[in-house]
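forwarding from the other thread:

> can someone predict this with alpha-D-glucopyranose?

sure thing
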Amino acid sequence: MSLTVCLLASEAAPLSKTGGLADVSSALTKYLHAAGHDVRLFTPLYSSINRSKFPPQPVEGLQNMDVGVGLHSYVMSVMSTQMPGSTARIYLIDCPALYSRPTLYTADVDEHLRFLAFTRAVFICCQKMQWSPQILHCNDWHAAFAPLFLKAQYDWDRLFANTRSVLTIHNIGYQGTFNSSFIEDLALGPKNYLLHQDDLHAGRINPLRHGILYADAITTVSPTHAHEICTDQYGMGLQDSLRARGGALVGILNGVDYTEWDPRNDHYLPKHFDPDTLGVKAELKQQLLQRVGLQIAPKVPLAGVVSRLASQKGIDLMFESLPAVLEWRELGLLVLGSGDPPYEKFFAELQQSFPGRVVFRRGYDDELAHWIEAACDMFLMPSLYEPCGLNQMYSLRYGTVPIVRKTGGLADSVQHYDPATGQGTGVVFNDYNAEALEWGINTALDWYAEPERWRRIVRNGMERDFSWQRQGGLYVDLYQRLIA
Ligand code: ADP
Ligand code: GLC
């Protein structure tokens, strides 16, 4: 049965992206569309979106709409553009007053309003299109008030009588909390009692918490993380609300869009490879070394990092472990990322301490990210927490052996190699400390020194399949259960 699915996401690759949410919202849309469902992905039309590459076209009937957000009012228009690599269309909410800012996310005082307005606009679009979604699928805090609005403010509208809501938590570390003095922006009036009262008394309103309280189903992006976020260690203050929802919370591992991330057809690479043509990977490594100015010999292993530089990513563990390993062993390191200044400073200094062996590229560079996945020998991802993580799954596909900490989606996608059986796809360590990461890197270097063993690990990883064909079906099953 074909479904009508309204997806709300604050990022959509390749138009707007700071992390994996963008990859996932677009890939899920592509998957659902290809499977014959009527899926409409809504996202803000940020000023940073390249309009010559993705020309936005006005959607008839959705121009110059007045969108009220509490006491505020915005004029919004909806544009649509073609999703690259698909015939699906993306609906872009145009409102320069809110989305014309230097970055996708801000620390501005109206940050909550930017996404409340986005959420409101989607309801108004559905009404104006007279389109009745069976599923309203919200992602992260930015759209997390939609389930409450559905129940409290649109219950009168027969259009939404059969609409069920899903909240996917991609990153529980970001909850969008704002001061309760802005309560009127929610326009709940007499229904303010539906807000989380303890938070209100503490002077705050937490969007993500309300998604957890009111969505018909809650998902997060790996089974392990679904368990983790119910614990005090990983719940980031929301564990009680999550536990209270019991079986409404499930974990669905993200898929990988292999039309974008596959060494067999990667459009950024001059040459392609598969498990039988690993010589090409070695050639690409040589080209990458020259390109970024690394001066290690071809045989010296090269480790890569592509990451937002945030505490989530376990960069703190590298402060001690990387200098120690680099001091004693032959290893090159290429890091791409930007974020918290202390982490940027650490990598800049590491590059100075190990000239020709460490290169830090500060910034965001999609092409270099693909090259790092393709041409490095190993990939470091020692995350403190990782709801799913995409880079380790990309690494597996490109024969770049991931070194990961056993948490969230890393635990669900990388299997520690077992020399006794020859099974396994990477190095997995448990403890969140520098010694454990150092052990992980040293273990990988030891295995790398045995070419046959290394080839086996590489091939094991390249054979793994995390395609959306499989993972997308799990979302469809969930949607169908909800509307049954
Ligand atoms: P998260 O969403 O927590 O950042 P994921 O592993 O799920 O982590 O996804 C990160 C995505 O963002 C990947 O597609 C990765 O390649 C990309 N990415 C992260 N940092 C950069 C960067 N500096 N340049 C290019 N791509 C990046
Ligand atoms: C988040 C998580 C990451 C996940 C991504 C896409 O940003 O940090 O682990 O892969 O969302 O779901």
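The pocket of alpha-D-glucopyranose (ligand 2) is lined by residues 19-21, 24, 170-171, 221, 254, 386-390, 409 (CB under 6 Å). thats all i got for now
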